[in-house]
Amino acid sequence: MTGEGHPVIRTPDQRIRVFVSSTLRELAEERQAVRRAVERLRLAPVMFELGARPHPPRDLYRSYLAQSDVFVGIYGASYGWVAPDEEVSGLEDEYNLAPRAMPKLIYVKETVARDERLSELIARIQADDTAAYLHFTTPDELEDRVAGDLATLLAERFDQSTARGDAPERAEPGPGARIPAPYTATIGREGELAELRALLAGGQHRVVSLIGPGGIGKSRLAIEAAHANADLFPDGTFFVPLEGVLEAGLLLPTIAYVLGVRDTGAGGTLEDRLAQSLGDRRVLIVLDNFEQLVEEAPLLVRLYSLAPRACFLVTSRAVLRIRGERVFEVEALETPAPGSAATLAQAEGSAACLLFAERAAAAQPGFKLNAANAGAVVEICRRLDGLPLAIELAAARIRLLSPQDVAARLERSLAFLSTPVRDLPERHRTMRATIDWSVGLLSDVQRSMLEDLGVFAARFTLEAVESVGATRPWGDEAIETLAGLIDASLVQRVDADGRSVFSLLSIVREHALGVLERRGDADAMKRAHADHYLALVHATAPRLRGAGQVDAVIELGLEVPNLRAAARHLVQTGRLDDAGDFAWTLVVYWWISGYFAEVRLWMLELLAAQRPVSDRTRAVALFFTLWAEMWQRPSAQVVSGLGEAMRLFARDGDEHAAAMALAAQASTRLQFPDLDPATARAELEDAVARLRALGDRWAESLAEVALGQLAVVCSDIPGASAHFDRAVEIAESAQDAFTRVVAGNNRARLRFLLGDRDASEPEFLLTLRLSTQLHFVDGATYGIEGACALAAARGDAWKAGALAAAAATLRETTGVYDIAGLAIHLEPLAALRRSDPAAVAAGERAGRELSLAEAIELAMPDADADLRRAVAAW
After folding, report:
1. In sequence order, what DSSP letters do the residues of 658-681 get, joined into one string?
2. Residues 740, 32: Cα–Cα separation, whole Å
């Protein structure tokens, strides 16, 4: 419902379209009443009475419905006629065909008798959480109800600016949005890559699972396959790392985040938004290290059912056993056959030996396979069963040992080390034994550090290592010891946004954490880890509001896996008050970056622990668990729960949090169909006064935006302008990019609708600039739509079409809803489409191919060097 790409049958009017469904003769007066209500708001009623069309009735209403923005159903006593060869009447068929995301307003006329099938349909509608319904008695009453409800629905577009405009779609530039580049060349996998291409190109396999033991090269093969087959997936390839995702409930949010979908709690369920994002796109999604979430595999069936052209490439140590899965066993690299002579020719023809030689040359420049070392290399690769990771670990030792020395040590070590784990498959035993052997060659200090590092998530900084090592044997030699682990290929170093970060391979981390737990030090290290990140968030949190916000958000984005691990450590070790403090200290970051689903999961686990907690902790848990309900399912229970959170915050002395809970309570009321404006206004004004007195300008600005939205709902346009102006003023005084974008987008859209284009243009361009600096995709989308509206108003058909298509693609990609037809750019674009259809169509074709950076550059052709650098960095 974007107002673009219309089918051949067109609705009579290209304004916001309200489809009216009812029986015709029975409710003729009521239909006219609804038509008057729709036209009072200058919207377009979509009704058969508006004139005959040269199409069959069934084709006509289906095409009209597909192009409409709002569904209005009126039901009286009659179910309507059921056509031959049909099972339902046109009345029920229209409701069934209305998209789930389309706003549905249902009006039921009070009557003495009703057809049984109509009663059944009404009962189904009443049970449907996507439809709002009311009863009425007279046409005049119906007209007033419809006019009021549509006005409220129109005003909700301003709710979208805050509810969906407050979370940047990426807190860091794509930790998984792009398939990572392999650190080293892939050797010996040409046959597997060809087979995988055939599987992916056929389109018959929805889930291709690369199955094999740890260390056999599943992840590297998946990465290589994704790069090699990018041409098969024109709408994108995505990499979702799952090794640090242990809670089942985090699988969907993690996939969504990588695809650019953020969860601020608003805008429908995360699954709905993900379905919207994927839609009919031809994409490849790589899910790496799925084994710890294998019980959640049925979720993939739901996802590929919602996204018929998406394909999942999964790496796992266990088969998923779901419908649509094609299992691809990843084998070890080829080694020379046992018993054959270990010659140079055999070594050069073996993928395993070539891998050893390549990695050995990296460790010791100048190393080459030759007649003198070929026998030892063959022996090493045979003993390691061709396992790539084991071979790489052994090759790293060439800096210190000759191939002959490595082979001799393996012969002695592997036989001994593999005996305690005979219950594991042979390749698992070999891999574990190889790691044990590699670790056994470390010094005591290096080995102690490696085991302690098992407490970290996917990556970590030197500062974090030094912090947790303050009381460890290696603490005074952290840099030198870490360098030794890097030389041994047990720790990897990479650059991230100009900083050095470190990581362990998942199987090495498993080994380290296992040893840590066996020696009884795991809890102490988890405490040290949690303490470091708790201190980090307290040190960073002040910069999340104000001038340092952009840098703080990006810095925290680099730490997300460890923030997740720290929260888990705090909850699991019973430090529930610290867990609540951790969650609340980062409330601004969770909001901006769209991590509310994860925080809600931790808070539910906290409440389920049924241990004594402080009033503040209970209030924090209530707030986070109710946030999504506030936007998706507003109710009196949500209002009551937020009121309880407010009282608990106040009793604990946290007046800032209490005022935020009060503003959230009032915002919940704004979602009610029977809004009580006086109560909502009183609560919001109270919240604003409290926040102003406390000097909390960040929350005060957002509360002023909510007051502006309330004024729009109440048709108080001067009041709305005043509140939006005040919200902008507060954001500017605080130098806060996020609140400036939220407030500015609301004000710019209102000014454009009021015809003040000169004032709206600089506002849109500023919010687009700030969104770019903040990596805020949703804010950028509103800015691009604003630039589209301005281009359309000036008659620049190609540019308007290109920006509209780029914005629509962004909304589809991110799953961020905006009520279709209510976006300010669609009406002027529709007018241009009528006057210059060819230019608009050409622009739309070009716009669909634009990247986000290219769309921003088109919207802001005069961007300065700083902005161009920010766009390039994004």
Report:
1. HHHHHHHHHHHHHT-TT--HHHHH
2. 44
d(CA 746, CA 727) in angstroms, rounded, equals 10
Query: So what's the pLDDT on residue 80?
Result: 87
E strand or H helix that includes residue 382: helix 374-383
Per the listing, tokens 């029986």 go with 23
Q: pLDDT at position 816, please? A: 62
What token pair was written down for 18? 């309200």
Beta carbons within 8 Å of 380's beta carbon, 6+ residues apart: 356, 391, 394, 403, 406, 407, 410
Burial bucket for residue 320 (CB in 10 Å: 0-12, 13-18, 19+): buried
Q: How many Å apart are CA 202 and CA 431, to the nearest integer?
A: 34
H/E stretch holding 837? helix 837-847
What's the confidence (pLDDT) of residue 426? 58
| Pairing mode, strands 104-109 and 131-136 | parallel
Strand partners for 804: none
pLDDT, residue 10, reads: 36
Interior/surface letters 547-573, b for 16+ CB within 10 angstroms, e for the rest:
eebbebbbbbbbbbbbbbbbbbbbbee
Q: What is the DSSP string of 258-310?
A: HTT--BSS-SS-HHHHHHHHHTT---EEEEE--GGGGGGTHHHHHHHHHSTT-
What is the Cα–Cα distance from 587 to 89, expressed in whole angstroms?
Answer: 50
Task: Please give the Cα distance from 767 to 841 (Å, whole number).
Answer: 27
Query: Is the whole-model pTM more than 0.85?
Result: no
Strands 499-503 and 460-461: antiparallel
Q: Which amino acid is at 304?
A: Y
Report CA Rg, the chain: 30
Closest CA to 452 of 532, 562, 391, 526: 526
Q: How far apart are CA 713 and CA 229, in angstroms?
A: 50
Residues in the chain: 874
Q: What pLDDT is stored for residue 873 in this prediction?
A: 66
Return the H-helix or E-strand segment holding 221: helix 218-228
CA 527/CA 864 separation, integer angstroms: 47
pLDDT means over runs of 10, the chain (874 residues) = 35 64 88 86 69 48 75 92 82 86 88 87 81 86 86 59 35 48 76 91 89 86 92 91 83 87 69 82 92 89 88 92 90 85 89 93 90 94 87 87 90 56 53 78 91 90 94 90 86 78 82 89 93 96 94 89 91 92 94 84 88 94 90 88 96 96 94 90 97 96 95 92 97 96 94 91 93 84 93 95 91 63 80 93 92 88 77 70
| Spatial CB neighbours of 429, under 8 Å, sequence gap ≥ 6 | 418, 421, 422
Calculate ∠ Cα 301-302-304, nearest 5°: 65
**Residue whose C-alpha is closest to residue 747's, from 733, 734, 762, 769:** 762
Does residue 247 sit in helix, strand or coil? coil
Identify any residues that bridge with 135 across adjacent strands, giving them in sequence order. Answer: 108
Structure tokens at 155: 């005003």
**Separation CA 379–CA 409 (nearest Å):** 11
Whether residue 107 contacts residue 74, with contact meaning beta carbons closer than 8 Å, is answered with yes
At 809 the pLDDT is 84
Q: Are 109 and 75 in contact (CB under 8 A)?
A: yes
Helix H or strand E encompassing 453: helix 444-453
Query: How far apart (Å, rounded) are the C-alpha atoms in residues 74 and 236?
Result: 43
Closest CA to 387 of 338, 430, 416: 430
Q: How many separate helices (H) and strands (E) can be counted in the chain?
A: 40, 13
Extract the tokens encoding 558: 């680099």
Residues 458 and 731: their CA atoms lie apart, in Å, by 36
Tokens representing 634 are 């507003």
- Rounded to whole angstroms, how far apart are CA atoms 53 and 654? 64
Selection from 727, 851, 858 nearest residue 174 by Cα: 851
Nearest partner of 745 among 145, 163, 9, 355, judged by Cα: 163
Our measurement of the distance from residue 202's CA atom to the centroid of its chain's CA atoms, rounded to an integer in Å, reads 28
